[in-house]
Structure formats: structure tokens, C-alpha cells
Amino acid sequence: MEIPILTSYVVSITSKDCWIFYKMTLLILSTLSLPLTAICYFYSKIKLCIFFALIFFVSNIIFAHGLLYEDYTLFFYLLLLLCVVFPVLCLTAFALDVKYGIFCIDTSFSSIIAWIFSPILLPINLIILYLGN
Amino acid sequence: METKKIFISAGETSGDIHGSNLIREIHKKNPSITFHGLGRNRMVEAGMHCIHDMSSRSVMWLHTLKKIPELWNIFKDCTRFFDEEKPELVILIDYAGFNFYLAKSAKRRNIPVMYYISPQLWAHGSWRVKKIRKLVDRMVVVYPFEEAFYANEGVSVKYVGHPLFDELHMREIDEAFVEKMKDGEDKAIVSLLPGSRKQEIRRLLPVLLKTATVIHERNPSVKFIVSCSNKRNLELIEGITKSFASANSNKNLPIEIVTGKISEVIKASSLCISSSGTVVLEIANYHVPMVICYRVSPFSYFIARPFMTTPYICLVNAIAKKTVVPEKLMYRDDYKWLASRATELLLDEEKREMCIAGLKEITSLIGTPGASAKAADEALSMI
Questions:
Q1: Is A115 an 8 Å CB contact of chain B?
Q2: Do the domain assignments include residue B334?
Q3: Which residues of A touch B129 (CB under 8 A)?
């Protein structure tokens, strides 16, 4: 009879540790990738910039999903729309414009949108994490 | 004889001046041509039938958003003009944002498009040359290096020289006013030219005034002139100067504000500290040493940095492809740097002479008048 109790105790400790480790990893990744993206952008290292931006977006989306999805699903999707979908769409339009020159408007404006909206993800995640603790 | 119609569009003050000179030159060669379009009082005086007055429509960045409904109505009127009057040629002068839409609209209607005074694609956003290749039949450019830039991208291009030198050639200097500013004394005059847009003045003038304070501490005999490009900016410049004077410990800073008369201000000066822009060519024309700066917010600096494809913000240095005059794109108040460079150019004879020699070399390259006449020839060859 003792073995299942012990097993469940061990499993619960392990999963709790895992979640802390998981959260810490996401926290470090999302916090570090933002300044790295900014540095690469400033020095025009475009491929590295895209790489770190992807890490930033992916880690923050997973982070926000873990923190928000169950209890605040609508807020999670709104956050995703504003801080991920909107800037990424603008940047895609900019990339297409650079490649094919399709718009009359100066699309370099999209980088301003991306740098205003995307970083919001991180402080929101940090605030929710802080409030959750 | 059937009258030919040319549609012409300029949004900025400088575009209005160069547009008016172009209209006059075309009229000299073919008086039967009529001009219709967008511009300001100078173009109307030169004989253009104004579809919309573009005064107070010179905006940048986010301020453009407020003007979208107005600009949309203007655009609709222009396309209606294209449909109803079918002009022989569309001439667009600088003002890239709005003029690109007009170029697209004209192109759709098979109206040839000439673009006079290129947006500075060689300095930032060079990918936009693809749009120009699609929308414009001929680029008529004003800087020598622009010709190679467009030719390499497969755009039909013609270098005509800078029309500012036509304007300067015609302008008569008020020598009495120059002498009045000098006041018969042998004092060095440093003029501060903070630009013509209100946004620029708000950002740059406080830095220039701090610079003046440091220069005055090092050389108390120097006199300062703040150049106000037009009366609309006078109140703003006076306000900034007064509030600076009341907050500053150096109450005896000798500053005079001069409205208009920019050529006279430059000619009376031993040194100019100016914002980056076409005005630097005017300063170069009078062979006056200068320090050039442009002030942006740290965020704008961060955003714009990857798009800058030229190492120079000053046209003089970009034309010379070397640093002839000290320049700095600032994201904070680097007034000590400005004061050091200014003091060097005021006191170090060797540096001063080198700078003047560099300016003479540049004006010998680009300073000859006749750009408007050459641009007129290009326009007429397209009809």
C-alpha cells in the first residue's frame, strides 16, 4: 500500500520541479532574447536578429500560454493578436515590399510597429508571473 | 495650336521654389504649355493653375496620420484631373510619400512621369528604388552621385545639377544688412540654423543654445545669430530662446534673432552651426565653415540605424565622400562635442583653411547654375 503513495509523492515533487525549471528556462530565454534581438537589429545582423526574435516570440507565447490560457483564454488570444500577429504581419509586408517594391507607402514604418508592440509580451508575462506567485 | 498640359506636384517649400523656376524655364522654351497641379504661392506666381494649395501640408512621421483625410481628397482631385484633362506629362518634385501615389495613378493612365529631385534613397531605404523603376519614366537628379545610383538600378536618369544654385545666382545679397549684423566690429559671428520645421526647431534649438553658451565661455568676444527661416517660426524660436535665457546662468549671451535673410546671415558669419538639410549647400556656396548636426530621439535613432546606407548625414560630406565638415547625428544633447568642433573651426587656422578649401572644391563641382533649364529640356523631351 505504501508504494503507490510514495510514487505519487515522488511524481508530484518531480512535476513541480519540472514546472519551475520549465518556467525558469522560458523566463531566461524570453528575457535574454529581447536585448539580443535589439543588438542584432541595431548592427544590421538580420539573420541573427530573426533567429533571436523567433526565440523571443516562441518562448513568450509558451510562457503566456502556461500562465494565461486556462483562466484567461480571451486575454491570451488578444495579447497574441496585438503583440505577435500584428507586428509579424507588418514585418511580412515590409519584407515583401523590400523584395518586390509593391507598396507606395514607405513600409519601413512597420519596424516601429514591431518594436512598439512585440516587447509588450515580456513585461505582461513577468507581471502575471509576479502576481501569480 | 493645341495647348499642352503638364501636371506638376510639389509639397514642400523648397519644392515650391524649384518648381516655380522649372515652370518659368519651360515657359521660356514653350509658352503655350499650361501647368496645373499642387504647390504653393511661388508656383502659382510662376503661372501654375493651383488644384490645391500645399502650404501647411509639409509633415513628417506620425503627423502624416492626421493629414490622411485631407491628402486623400487632394489625391482624388488629382486623379479626376488625370481622367478629365489627360495631361501630357506629370512632373513630381520630391515629397516622396504622396508623390509616389500620384506616380502610380499617372502610370495606370499611361501618362509619362518625370521625377525631379529624388527622395534621398541613397541615404536610407534604398530598396525603394524598385518602386521608382516601376512608377517613374525618368529621374532628373540634382546630386552627381545619384546618377550612378539610379543607372546601376536600371532607372532612366539625368543629372542636371542643383536648382538651389539657380536660386542663389538670382538672389541679390543685402550687403548693408550684412554690414549691420557685423556692426563694424571685428567680432566673430556664429550663426545657429535650427531648420525650418517646427519639430526640428523644438529638438535642435535648445542644443544649439547650450552649444553657444559653451563657445561663449571659451571665447567671450563671439556674437551669435539665430536664423529663423520664416515668420511662422519666429514665435517658437523667440519662446525657446527666452526660456533658455531665463534658465541659463550666462545672462550676457549675445544672441540676435534674424528672420528670413538667410543668405545675409550666412555671409556675415565666421561659422555656422546648422541642422542637416539643403541649407548646408547654401552655406557651402558662401564658403563658410560649418558644424552639422541632427537631433533625433533615442528610439528613432535605434529604429533608423539599420536603414542608413550612407555614413554621412551632411550633403557636403556625402558629395565629397569624405568628412569636409564635422557632422553628428545625435540622440542626446551632445552640445560639448558641437562646441569643441565649433571652437576648433573658429580658432585653428589650419583646420579652418582646410574646411574652406574642401567647400570650394565642392562648389566648383556642383555650384554652377542652369539646373532648372536642363530639367526643362528633359521635361520637354518627354512630351
A1: yes
A2: yes
A3: 101
Cβ contacts of B96 on chain A, cutoff 8 Å: 106
3-class DSSP state for residue B223? strand
Residue with cell 499642352: B4
* Closest CA of chain B from A130, distance in Å: 28
My answer on whether B129 and B207 are in the same domain is no
CA distance B378 to A77: 56
- Inter-chain residue contact A42 with B302, CB threshold 8 Å: yes
Is the CB of residue B325 less than 8 Å from the CB of residue B290? yes
* Mean pLDDT of all residues in A84-93: 95
Residue B95 has pLDDT above 80, yes or no: yes
CB neighbour class for B129 (10 Å; exposed up to 12, middle 13-18, buried from 19): buried
B130 neighbourhood in chain A, CB within 8 Å: 100-101
- pLDDT tens readout for residues B248-282: 766 678 899 999 899 999 999 999 999 998 899 99
Residues B220, B140: one domain?
A: no
Assessment of whether the complete model's pTM goes beyond 0.80: yes
Amino acid at B29: K
Quote the ipTM score. Answer: 0.82
Could you tell me if residue B166 is inside a domain? no
B140 is written with which cell numbers? 532628373
Chain B: nearest CA to A33, how far in angstroms?
17
